[in-house]
Amino acid sequence: MEKLRYERPVIKKLNTGFLSKFGTRTEYVPVTHIDDNAVEDLVKEFGSPLFVLSESRIRENFQRANRAFKTRYPRVQFAWSYKTNYLNAICNVFHSEGSWAEVVSGFEYNKALHNGVPGDKIIFNGPDKTDEDLISAIKNNSLIHIDHLDELYRLIELSEEVKKKPRVSIRINMDTGVYPMWDRFGFNYENGQAWDALMKIVTSQKMELTGLHSHIGTFMLTKDAYGIAAMKLATLALKIKKELKKNIMYIDLGGGFASTNTLHGSYYQGKDISPSFDDYAEAISTQILKSGISPEELPLLILETGRALIDDAGYLIGSVLANKRLSDGRRATIMDFGVNILFTSFWYAHKISPAQDFSHYTEDTVLYGPLCMNIDVIRESCTLPPLKKGDQVVVHTVGAYNMTQWMQFIAMRPNVVLIDTKGKSHLIREKESLEYLMQKEKMPEHLKGFKL
Amino acid sequence: MNNKLLTFIFILLPPMPTLKIKTDIAISDTGFVFIPSTGDSFSVNPMGAELINLIKQGKQVDDIKKKILSSYTIDPATFEKDYYDFVRQLKQYNLLTEK
Asked: Is B54 helix (H, G, I), strand (E, B) or coil?
């Protein structure tokens, strides 16, 4: 006689209370395949945990965003935000779609050059640019976005040394009606700092003012704030034209578009409240088009969108290490991945699906990572079917920031796989090894060897 | 963990007390558990319902284990972990007493 499929016994207390208008949750619908690749096969070949990125989804996202803007505004350019995910293969997917590079450090700048991005198609943001970085950017005709006055004055000095005019823009912070206002980066619009900086650039005659840049925040759930930013930058462009007799080549609205993730503490699911690319595009384009800039002088609109283009193209496959019962009766499951590689679990309630078929019985579960550290909590409460040791789960929407902010803490960082548009899997970052981690360590002579 | 090792561990353990499901508890075929005296209700999955029924019939842990292992694709160690966890839950919910 064939044996029946076993499922761990589950008992759940039924509580009466207010009805939820959202109905039951459906996280327990299994995700057995990612882009036609069986999760089971991916784990067999590349191990667990494993990051998987979908090239098809990245390209779909990019094309959807590009279409949303280009159908509303005549001149649009995307620049891939390296800090969001700077694995070379991922950057090249974006570059092959036509994206420039947007970098925030010398390391990222050199990575973009290494990937073959022409210097004049690299936007250099951020408060930390060394002299070496700035000289390289000046020589390569890169677009340098000045963050503070110290950088502005240093650029004037360097331009004399290099005997070349840097192509510059300033980052402008402003009140767009959202709280908290990001004023730590760039020059303030309302109090006149930005205008003073622009005046200094133009009157110094050592730099070429090319554009205006703002980046109003991150995971912005309101499109209207972008409309306000676009309107203020367009107004400033008109003032520069009128008073300084300069045409602004581009307006860069930065990034910060929300993905479909759900922030901790949010009442609604992210996918229900995040604005679409069309929403953002409508808000931004409308304001620039109606600003009064003549049609033939409309500046190039640059967007440095990162998260919204790649978050839902990334998955993290993990396995159950153990189950336990907490003192208050809650079920706890320990996974083989934690906050070390899923850094975004600090601020997102990531959707997590089992990777194998289950019945419809579920249990509220605390999901812990494997680190010997109390803060290693992936989900405080997650409705999942009874998982047993060795079962796999798929964490959704992890493509942004995890592969750049991951920590090497007590464990190695895992393999990263890209599934191409034909469904073929490619290893794009090999898992780390002890040798790799120790290669930069040095042992003083007197500490070599010991007796116990 | 192999069966011989498990048997060895069992010999070392003190004898398990007899478990008894409280008499006033009603279980439906669909896994709905109701305690009339307190008004508490629970839902159990089919495996949970089967275990409650076996305990209710007065079966001891060895008999229950034998029956489940012969009917389901599960190894003894995993079932044992799940069984004791489930029993602890039943006790916590006040559905079970020990004699």
From this structure: helix
Instruction: Quote the ipTM score.
Output: 0.84
Residue ranges of domains in chain B, CATH in brackets: 3-98 (3.90.930)
Residue in the block written with tokens 């925030």: A104
Q: Which residue is associated with the tokens 């992890």? A: A398
Percent helix / strand / coil, chain B, rounded to 5: 50, 15, 35
**Total number of residues shown for chain B:** 99
Rounded CA-CA distance B43/A264 in Å is 29
Lowest mean pLDDT among A323-332, B59-68, B89-98: B89-98
Query: Which tokens hold the place of B62?
Result: 């060895």
Percentage with pLDDT > 90 across chain A: 84
Q: Do A10 and B45 touch (CB under 8 A)?
A: yes
Residue A208 three-state SS: strand
Q: CA distances (Å), A111 to each of A68, A86, A401, in order?
A: 29, 8, 17
Which pLDDT score, from 0 to 100, does residue A99 have? 98
As its CATH architecture, domain A33-52+312-437 has Beta Barrel (2.40)
- Using DSSP, state whether A119 is helix, strand or coil: helix
Dist. CA A249–CA A211, nearest whole Å: 6
Instruction: Return the domain boundaries, chain A.
Output: 33-52+312-437, 55-310
pLDDT (mean) for A130-156: 97
What is the rounded CA–CA span in Å between residue B64 and residue B56? 11
The length of chain A, given as a count of residues? 452
pLDDT value for B5: 58
User: Rounded to a whole number, what is the distance in Å from the CA of A328 to chain B's nearest CA?
Assistant: 9
pLDDT band at A31 (very low <50, low <70, confident <90, very high): very high
Give the residue carrying structure tokens 């493509």. A399
Of A205, A202, A193, A144, nearest to A169 (Cα)? A144
Write the single-letter amino acid at A51: F
Mutate to test the interface with A, among B27, B43, B44, B47 (most CBs of A within 10 A): B47
Q: Collect all residues from A whose CB is shorter than 8 A from any CB in B.
A: 3-14, 323, 325, 329, 359, 361, 386, 388-389
Specify whether the CB–CB gap between A40 and A392 falls below 8 A: yes
> What class does CATH assign to A55-310?
alpha beta
